[in-house]
Design a protein that fits this description.
heterodimer; A: 354 residues; mainly alpha; B: 496 residues; alpha/beta; Rossmann fold; 17 helices
Amino acid sequence: MIKIVKRDQPSRAIFFFTPVLAIFLTLVAGGLIFFILGFKPFEALKFFFIVPIADKYGFSELLLKATPLCLIAIGLSFCFKSNNWNIGAEGQLTFGAIVSGGVALLFYEQEGFYILPIVILAGAIGGMLYASIPAILKTYFNTNEILVSLMLVYVSKLILDYLVVGPWSNPEGFNFPETRQFSDSAKLPLLFEGLRIHAGIFLALAAVVISWFVFYKTYLGFQMKVSGFSLKTAKYAGYKGKKMIILVFLISGACAGLAGVGEITGPIGQLHREISPDYGFTAIIVAFLGRLHPVGIIFASLVVAITYLGAETAQIFMQIPKYTGQVFQGMILFFLLASDYLLFFKIKFIGLKK
Amino acid sequence: MNTNLKISNVTKIYPGCVANDNVSLEFNSGKIYALLGENGAGKSTLVKILSGVIIPDEGEIYLNKNNLKLNSPLDAKKNDIGMVFQHFNLFETLSVFENLIIDSDEQRESLREKIDLIMKKYNFSIDLDIPVLNLSAGQKQKVEIIRCLIRNPKVLIMDEPTSVLTEQETSELFLSLKKFSEEGILIIYITHKLKEVMQLCDEVAVMRRGKLVSVSEIKNENIESLANKMVGQNLKTIKKKKAKTSSDQLIKITNLNFTSEDPFETNLMDINFSVNRGECLGIAGISGNGQSELFQVLSGEIISEKNSIEFNNSYIGNLNPQERREYLMAFSPEDRLEQAAIPQMKIFENVALNNFKSSNFFNNGLINENKIKEHSKKIISDFNVNTDNIELKSQFLSGGNLQKLIIGRELITSPDLLICFNPTWGLDVGAINYIHETLIKINEQNKSIILISTDTDELLKLSDKISVIHKGKLSKIMNAEEVTSEKLGILMGGAN
């Protein structure tokens, strides 16, 4: 007989074990899906998870995809840790990209060391501005931040659409929906000749270090922790709830905005319609898979980044649609949530009673 | 047909608290029974056991001599036990009719006839086809009652049914309940409102701290005797020595009002009082009469008009708890596990919740962990918290030790005023004595206390002045020597 027993307290070991379990179960289920589709499961999984990162170029691509995921997830963890449910990072990324792209376009004929910092700053500010909308509506008008932040994603995408086909479209671009190429001074420098990995990775690493410091060493981090456990206690302690809500949204928005900057000034080099393959949404999975811990998020962003690459490889070599990548991302979240059940309950196997 | 419901030696233990301690009770149809007790006395646990929501650790339930095994609410329904909970369990956007048929497997048409019959019989008039969200609280409750009646229950349990009803709706409810009782349904009525018990019920069972205290007929009781049984007055008390209270006023509350948007909260009306240095003002009352709201207004969790609270010659009504701490106030809320402390955090982290500027827990926005730890060690030794590991998560402290830690955390900054709410609730005798001694000591050091408590013993033991809160209004403030428990009982019941 199997009996399910409530744990007296959540287990620390299980806390770190369940993400690993979730990834394992995702692989098993993924193999099963490949099998049903008529592929050899092990071969397909190899194409999905090993082939893409087997060479230097692949590894660079992995870091390239992990960078925005990590950056956004770090920002989101500020919100999630303090009980604020910002799920509109995709919108904040897009708006950050719009603002920084706009600034970069102003300088399209110019060169100068000062351009890139301005462009980066503009992206962070754009993300912050956009994140401040759900934050202000939540604090002053009691709206639900989940709905507002989500709906604003679509608004930002429509704004981007309008700009790239309309006022900002490249005059010499044969009516393609894209802007001019940014000048080299507005682009993040590449780290290695011939590889696409760029200096944006340092922004992500800086975010990891800073967030670790804030979470564990500062008064703000302490207040976030308390608010995450109990809003009643935070109120009793006298924390300024509204100020904190706005602050965590701003931080989160800045990170998403920076991720947007990294995309358009890194591999893309201009604004067009599809600047992000839903990094902002996938980063929610990354944040939870990494247990909202800065180091955990690094690992989680690498794991999830593989699903993007694997999907492309699988499409090329096995003619599997690249949307399989999203299936894998969905499965990771699904299994993570399911195995979190083990945090609070344990399964006991007991002999049949006579 | 006669219905006989028997609860036999029921015990339910939660970690750190005995919710029901060997409770045995017998009910017979034709009468309305009151189950009376304060919040946390164990009455809700008992009725949840009867309705299959909670499974008892020990004990049996018999309905007409049949031993019932109630493992789920469905089992209770199958055995003709109906329950109307305090908070309604209705789907707001579905129609009344849809809500009524949702857990039934009978035909829609025959049910509709049945419902119409029930409504006619008891004079209920509710449109079955409008969404539930358009109904008043009283009407929603009727929907819940009809949902029980459809199943022809033998037993109907009502949990605090009048907390959201108007006077008019309450008297309508009482008429219906009397009718049900005449028809042979056994009614168990859970409440802490004494007047209603006197008005409605035939027999009353009183619970306190998980134990059944008494079972008696209403005609042998009055409001005061029931109030005393609820709060446990009949123990001998030692009063503290009359402190040499000064006439130096510390805090003055003037015309303070609070209106809540939540129908389950109590509005505060026209609160006025003052406390001098070295004094303890006790605020008595049956729980749910506005104590929690009063505590929050005093602590700054609910902000009021600036001039309504004058503390040490400054107006502070508009300040939040942390800002009030800087004026040397300290607060110990009722709920240790969900408000005053966070069980999942370590002891020293919980100490840092009382962030007092001069204790330097946080410098320039950074956590000063050494300072917090040093401070925590001092609290642990000064206030006898039974551990020497400040890295321990506070969930591993017993209730008494956790409360000592909280009181210690609040007192170590030497505040001029401590406001505490049920500081000894749920603690064992040793811890209660320790906390009482500590509170008396504060008064001796010429510091003041506002003690909001539902424990009359405690109030008579510690207070210099006493007032009673009833439905959000304070009685006049009396000197503790002039007060008897009978007098408090009358005031707690709402009489003048």
